[in-house]
Write a structure and sequence with these properties.
Shape: flat
Largest sheet: none
Distance between the termini: 49 Å
Strand content: under 5%
Order of helices and strands: HHHHHHH
Helix content: over 70%
Mean pLDDT: 75
Oligomer: single chain
Structural class: mainly alpha
Low-confidence stretches: 143-151
Number of strands: 0
Amino acid sequence: MAGAGFGVLEGFVLCSVAYEAGALVSYSGGRLFGVGRSLRLIKPMVAFMRRAPFKAVLSVRLLPVGSSLLVSTLSGGLRIPVLAFAGATALGGVPQNLIFVLVGSGLPVGHQTEMILSAVLFVLSTVLGVVMIRRYRSYGAQPMALSEGRE
Protein backbone atom coordinates (compact mmCIF):
# COMPACT_ATOMS: atom_id res chain seq x y z
CA MET A 1 0.00 0.00 0.00
CA ALA A 2 2.86 2.39 0.74
CA GLY A 3 4.21 1.92 -2.78
CA ALA A 4 0.82 2.51 -4.36
CA GLY A 5 0.05 5.56 -2.25
CA PHE A 6 3.38 7.32 -2.03
CA GLY A 7 5.60 5.96 -4.81
CA VAL A 8 8.78 3.93 -4.56
CA LEU A 9 11.10 6.15 -2.52
CA GLU A 10 8.62 7.59 -0.04
CA GLY A 11 6.77 4.27 0.16
CA PHE A 12 10.02 2.43 0.91
CA VAL A 13 10.90 4.84 3.71
CA LEU A 14 7.40 4.58 5.20
CA CYS A 15 7.40 0.79 4.89
CA SER A 16 10.84 0.51 6.50
CA VAL A 17 9.90 2.78 9.40
CA ALA A 18 6.69 0.80 9.99
CA TYR A 19 8.60 -2.50 9.84
CA GLU A 20 11.18 -1.26 12.32
CA ALA A 21 8.55 0.21 14.66
CA GLY A 22 6.55 -3.02 14.69
CA ALA A 23 9.68 -5.05 15.40
CA LEU A 24 10.64 -2.72 18.27
CA VAL A 25 7.15 -3.02 19.79
CA SER A 26 7.45 -6.83 19.72
CA TYR A 27 11.00 -6.62 21.08
CA SER A 28 9.77 -4.43 23.94
CA GLY A 29 6.99 -6.88 24.75
CA GLY A 30 9.45 -9.75 24.93
CA ARG A 31 11.75 -7.71 27.12
CA LEU A 32 8.92 -6.52 29.38
CA PHE A 33 7.39 -9.95 29.88
CA GLY A 34 10.70 -11.83 30.07
CA VAL A 35 9.92 -14.37 27.37
CA GLY A 36 13.55 -15.52 27.31
CA ARG A 37 13.54 -16.74 30.92
CA SER A 38 11.72 -19.94 30.02
CA LEU A 39 14.23 -20.98 27.37
CA ARG A 40 16.67 -23.02 29.45
CA LEU A 41 17.09 -25.66 26.74
CA ILE A 42 18.92 -23.27 24.45
CA LYS A 43 21.20 -21.71 27.05
CA PRO A 44 24.39 -22.20 24.97
CA MET A 45 22.72 -20.59 21.95
CA VAL A 46 21.53 -17.68 24.07
CA ALA A 47 25.11 -17.03 25.22
CA PHE A 48 26.30 -17.13 21.62
CA MET A 49 23.54 -14.78 20.44
CA ARG A 50 24.60 -12.31 23.08
CA ARG A 51 28.16 -12.42 21.73
CA ALA A 52 27.10 -11.85 18.09
CA PRO A 53 23.59 -10.34 18.27
CA PHE A 54 23.75 -8.34 15.06
CA LYS A 55 24.75 -11.33 12.92
CA ALA A 56 22.25 -13.62 14.63
CA VAL A 57 19.27 -11.31 14.07
CA LEU A 58 20.37 -10.27 10.58
CA SER A 59 20.74 -13.85 9.35
CA VAL A 60 17.25 -14.72 10.59
CA ARG A 61 15.75 -11.55 9.09
CA LEU A 62 17.22 -12.35 5.68
CA LEU A 63 15.69 -15.81 5.57
CA PRO A 64 12.64 -15.91 3.32
CA VAL A 65 10.70 -17.92 5.90
CA GLY A 66 10.11 -17.45 9.59
CA SER A 67 8.16 -15.36 12.00
CA SER A 68 9.24 -11.77 12.47
CA LEU A 69 7.07 -11.55 15.58
CA LEU A 70 8.82 -14.56 17.11
CA VAL A 71 12.30 -13.23 16.29
CA SER A 72 11.48 -9.81 17.74
CA THR A 73 9.83 -11.13 20.89
CA LEU A 74 12.57 -13.65 21.62
CA SER A 75 15.27 -11.06 20.98
CA GLY A 76 13.68 -8.81 23.57
CA GLY A 77 13.19 -11.67 26.01
CA LEU A 78 16.81 -12.71 25.61
CA ARG A 79 17.85 -9.09 26.16
CA ILE A 80 19.72 -8.80 22.87
CA PRO A 81 21.13 -5.23 22.81
CA VAL A 82 18.50 -2.95 21.27
CA LEU A 83 20.92 -1.19 18.91
CA ALA A 84 22.17 -4.48 17.45
CA PHE A 85 18.60 -5.71 17.13
CA ALA A 86 17.34 -2.50 15.52
CA GLY A 87 20.27 -2.29 13.10
CA ALA A 88 19.98 -5.91 11.99
CA THR A 89 16.21 -5.57 11.64
CA ALA A 90 16.51 -2.44 9.52
CA LEU A 91 19.16 -3.96 7.25
CA GLY A 92 17.47 -7.36 7.06
CA GLY A 93 14.13 -5.80 6.14
CA VAL A 94 15.45 -3.84 3.14
CA PRO A 95 15.08 -6.58 0.49
CA GLN A 96 11.53 -7.58 1.32
CA ASN A 97 10.38 -4.00 1.93
CA LEU A 98 11.82 -2.95 -1.43
CA ILE A 99 10.08 -5.79 -3.25
CA PHE A 100 6.75 -5.02 -1.57
CA VAL A 101 6.99 -1.32 -2.41
CA LEU A 102 8.00 -1.97 -6.03
CA VAL A 103 5.10 -4.34 -6.55
CA GLY A 104 2.70 -1.99 -4.76
CA SER A 105 3.79 0.97 -6.86
CA GLY A 106 2.98 -0.92 -10.04
CA LEU A 107 6.52 -1.52 -11.23
CA PRO A 108 6.71 -5.04 -12.59
CA VAL A 109 9.15 -7.25 -10.78
CA GLY A 110 9.97 -9.97 -13.27
CA HIS A 111 10.35 -13.62 -12.46
CA GLN A 112 14.08 -13.44 -13.22
CA THR A 113 14.62 -10.49 -10.85
CA GLU A 114 12.77 -12.29 -8.04
CA MET A 115 14.84 -15.45 -8.61
CA ILE A 116 18.13 -13.52 -8.55
CA LEU A 117 17.14 -11.65 -5.38
CA SER A 118 16.04 -14.91 -3.73
CA ALA A 119 19.35 -16.58 -4.66
CA VAL A 120 21.37 -13.65 -3.29
CA LEU A 121 19.40 -13.70 -0.02
CA PHE A 122 19.79 -17.46 0.23
CA VAL A 123 23.57 -17.30 -0.29
CA LEU A 124 23.94 -14.40 2.17
CA SER A 125 21.85 -16.19 4.81
CA THR A 126 23.78 -19.42 4.27
CA VAL A 127 27.14 -17.68 4.63
CA LEU A 128 26.02 -15.91 7.80
CA GLY A 129 24.63 -19.17 9.16
CA VAL A 130 27.91 -21.03 8.54
CA VAL A 131 29.88 -18.21 10.16
CA MET A 132 27.55 -18.29 13.17
CA ILE A 133 27.81 -22.07 13.56
CA ARG A 134 31.61 -21.95 13.35
CA ARG A 135 31.79 -19.22 15.98
CA TYR A 136 29.25 -21.04 18.13
CA ARG A 137 31.38 -24.18 18.01
CA SER A 138 34.57 -22.20 18.64
CA TYR A 139 33.12 -21.24 22.02
CA GLY A 140 33.05 -24.95 22.86
CA ALA A 141 29.31 -25.37 22.50
CA GLN A 142 27.70 -28.04 20.37
CA PRO A 143 24.29 -27.52 18.77
CA MET A 144 21.65 -29.29 20.86
CA ALA A 145 19.39 -31.92 19.38
CA LEU A 146 15.69 -31.35 19.91
CA SER A 147 15.51 -34.36 22.25
CA GLU A 148 18.40 -33.23 24.48
CA GLY A 149 17.65 -31.63 27.78
CA ARG A 150 14.17 -33.08 28.17
CA GLU A 151 13.48 -34.67 31.50
